[in-house]
Predict the structure.
Amino acid sequence: MPIRWIRWLVLGVISAAAFTTLPMGPASADPVDDIPGGLESFYHQQLDWKPCNDAVLDDAGAQCAGVVVPLDYNRPDSRTLTVAISRIPATDPARRRGIMLSNPGGPGGPGLSMMTELRDRLTPDVRAQYDLIGMDPRGIGRSDPMSCALPMPSLLFSAGFDAFGYARDATLAAALAASCVVPDPEKARDITTRNTARDMDVIRGAFGERALNYYGNSYGTYLGAVYTQMFPQRSDRIVLDSAIDPDRYWIGTYQDMGATNEAGLDDWAIWAARHDADYHFGSSGPQVRAFVEDMIRRAAAHPVIGNGYLIDEHTAPMMLLAMLSNPQLNTKLAEVVRVIADAVSGLPFDMEQLKTKMSGRAPTDASGMAAVLCGDKAAPRDPAWYLRNIESVRATQPVFGAFANNITACAFWPEPIEPPTAVHNSTPALILQATRDTRTAYQQGVALHQDLTASRMVTLADTRVHSIFGVGLSPCVNDIVNTYFRDGTLPGADLTCRPDPNYLAN
């Protein structure tokens, strides 16, 4: 494959009731009790707070610090990493009860500024009680980031329609793996969820806190669940929004995205049909879907390259997937489809408009994402295994099946340094899940709820959305989350909420 062609491909891909009072966390324990041997200096380190030199964080009154952690926790006297964290102080020091750590998902998502957004969803009573802590996980953002020699905006591709297209993706996946591992094999293999959970506990210790409060979104729910398994006595108020089934992480998580995104596309197609006068995709849902499927076939036959973007059968489905996670993106998705359709039909189009629409839709770092996923759990090595899975779902998942079952760099990654975490414990937690989530399918949240036997689950009904604790989406959900963080109370039973109709109106 010509190097120039690979570069174009890489640049083009766009890459998910009554209440019962519960314990307020572990009782009277020194925050540094039970520290594994050799880690005392990490848990006792003093944090040096400085300006973040980031406009968003600085405007929020945040400060930043670096937390030194071992690269390999089995060798704490060897190499170290520095994990970047931010702090927005509790608004009422007299009522402060601890820290609330967060993770935005991915994996590969930088989270240093996450709390600047999350604080808008928290009530004043909650803001008064917690220092809000953002974190770039190890290997990501400002935390000694991974740097693969082959720069890619995404780890994930759609395999296309034939064996040649699949072989092309397999070749690129192998090249990406080599470019990540060869420069620094030790670092590449130690960027894992279990090590990030250990980092979180070091952060807790460095703050002198006896327990950790946590809000995690998407992949962040898996990280949070792993923390509760590894450090159950240090887990306090835990909220897991749009959850992942630990038993299906990570390959199964992506496989489940095939069917739920096909359903999401049908939902969007019904909306687009009501706006046929604006976009001309068809006057019924099936007509709109047929238009999209034909558009992807035309992209395969007539790929378009411009301004560093490639539109073809590998990238077009990923552009759709990026915008199916929220109904408020319906208009943007229609505009993206219009640009793609015009481009692959040979009509005049504006590639800059497409780049603008897609900007920010794939915030995760491909290098960090590869390291975490591949380091967490071994993937099948046989390329034929993936191709068989792709072919088995083509009829039922014509747009997204070739993505959800595609090969990745993990097929060519070294074996993980430790086995994945089996999550099953009685740590109280609040699990939030939308029935039509296109990133983490609803059954994933149900499975995590079963694994965390003392958890409660809040379902947002009839909503195609990922991340349900949000401004304006559901006052019902927001009240439950804020009550839990404020008082430590979970619903006495699982509950179902509905979205605000105004949020869905567009």
